[in-house]
Amino acid sequence: MKLLHALTIPRRQLALYVMLIAPVAVLFVYAYLPMFGVVMSFQRFEPSLGFFRSDWVGFANFRRLAYIPDVKQVVLNTLFIASMKIVVETLAAIVVAVLLNEIVSKLFRRVVQTIIYFPYFLSWVILGGILRDLLSREGLINMLLGKLGFEPVVFLSKASLFPYVLVGTETWQVTGFGTIVFLAAITTIDPTLYEAAVMDGASRFKQILHITIPGIKSTIILMMTLSMGYILNAGFEQVLMLYSPLVYSTGDVIDTWVYRMGLQQSQYSLASAIGLFRSVVSLALISVSYYVARKVSDHRIF
Prior knowledge:
The protein is an all-alpha fold. The chain contains 16 helices and two strands. The protein has helices at about 1-5, 15-30, 50-55, 60-65, 70-100, 105-115, 125-135, 140-145, 160-185, 190-200, 205-215, 215-225, 235-240, 250, 255-265, 270-295, and strands at about 45, 55. The chain has a two-stranded antiparallel ribbon. The model has no long low-confidence stretch (mean pLDDT about 85).
């Protein structure tokens, strides 16, 4: 009886639980149900035979990955690009949040926030087309460089530049949205600290350095900790929209490699194996980073 009583939903909360049905259903269908496909990692999967009749090969697919030359380079590319994105995007969000907080005019602040938030709500299908036009050899960027006396730069076809193009364009897209958390954290800082600093003659820069940044330190650690789970996720949609065979050596990441192997070349088991490997490594990294965050700043998510 006590269990039944505990499971009884209060009438005033019933509408909230009903609202949860749709997102929980979407999460189950698109996040949990596909996990059954992990079994392909341990099979020689044949679509005509299905999951239950395909040959079981154990860890053979994982051993096979070690002998594919492309895999090592793909993993290194993913780590390099994802690490740069985490660092640069976090720093950019912190800097922009601090600068927005320093704007006195509320109207001007709202206009600036709207402008920098806007790219976040555009898909990479749209952004990819815009960026291809801007960064092409005859695009606006190269036209401006030509006016300044520089030679045209093939941003999307030069392997050495492509990873930095990925980092720069995604930073432009997500920085505005990323500032929301840090702006919220800044509002929790005690205003009397700034008043005391002004009385002591501290400049605005020193107030930022000694009050604002330390005041949001725990939020920075939390966001960096959560980002560690995406260390092997360099942005599938973005890379797919911008890359070409000319930049595979530096721009091909795990997700795009899985896409080509699994869907274009029909090597389903191999693609599933490296996808599972990525997920396990990501889980381990975020678990370790969360443990470190608890020890260093005593900050808990749950």
